[in-house]
Amino acid sequence: MERNLGWIGLIMSTHAMKRFNKSKYIKQVYDYDNNIGNIRNSERGFSTFIAEVLDRIDDLASTKLSVLEIGIGGGGSHANYMENLTDSVVYGIDHFDKDGREFYNASHGQYHYIRDNFDELLINFEQGEADIHRINKEQADRGNDVKLWYALDGYTQEAADKVYDFNNGAIDFIVDDGSPTGPNTLLREWKDKVSDNGMIFSGNMFGQGTQDAWDKHQNPSWIEDNLKLIAQLGWIAFDMKEYEVLMEPEPHTWYICNYMCIYAKDYNLFEDILTKYEHNITAGKENWKHD
């Protein structure tokens, strides 16, 4: 561990300056009075972990830092990244299609939420896209770039190849905040697209924010079976309820689920962070520690 952290320190010394402002990011995402762009992650207990990992990746990345979030929504997460990064590129993918009303009206199953809330989502998405580009323009001196893809399923090979090619290589930090069909789908498409020094983070591995996902979480055997699957695929799963910070007097997030999962090609690069949260690991510890 000491040898690993010493190597990280050597890498850090090669950077003229930090590109990610961790302390400002953490302060911003927990300031619910002025910012709810990341409130789902903060209320579920994820935000500080995300900040610590991105700070470490910043130390390790030797080229322009790249961050992708699957799921754009109102753009709050992307805005928070851009406001706390310099010399970086922020990507976003969302399957919502602003011109797809007829398609959603004729669809069944997985698109019923979009169909039933299309007008509200359209306003949210248009405002979010405008805000992201406005922030990037207003803060042009930060040297950040942004690229958003809409009407694109983030859990397909097409999406993974498109972002990888646009970035001219692997992405440093991939955040899953969309609606995956399962952990195998996310990992299959993106495993080879994350950098050697990077990480894939998912706050959606079991689903979240819906009655259906909440109901499944009440079944211990369902949780146990899915944790075993996640571990077999190479993920590490955590229960982060200990760190949830709820808005008062009522939480903003519906059906809060506190499970998150991570995948890295080299978990040892994040050893001190994983050690800090080791007691929160619920599955996959063997993918990091081979006792």
SSE class: alpha/beta
Describe the strand arrangement of the main beta sheet, using strand numbers.
3-2-1-4-5-7-6-8
Average per-residue pLDDT, rounded, comes to 89
- Going by CATH, the architecture would be 3-Layer(aba) Sandwich
Order of helices and strands: HHHHEHEHHHEHEHEHHEEHE
Task: Please give the alpha-carbon distance between the first and last residues.
Answer: 15 Å
Binned, the helix content reads: 40-55%
CATH-assigned fold name: Rossmann fold
CATH class: Alpha Beta
Query: Compute the gyration radius: what is it?
Result: 18 Å
Q: Tally the helices: what do you get? A: 13
Features:
291 residues, alpha/beta, Rossmann fold, 13 helices, 16% strand
Structure description:
The chain has helices spanning 2-13, 22-29, 39-43, 47-60, 76-83, 101-106, 112-116, 118-138, 157-166, 183-190, 211-217, 220-233, 271-276; strands spanning 65-70, 88-94, 145-150, 171-176, 194-202, 236-239, 259-263, 281-283. With 291 residues, the chain is of the alpha/beta class. It has one domain: Rossmann fold (3-Layer(aba) Sandwich), CATH 3.40.50.150. α2 (22-29) packs antiparallel against α4 and α5 packs parallel to α8.
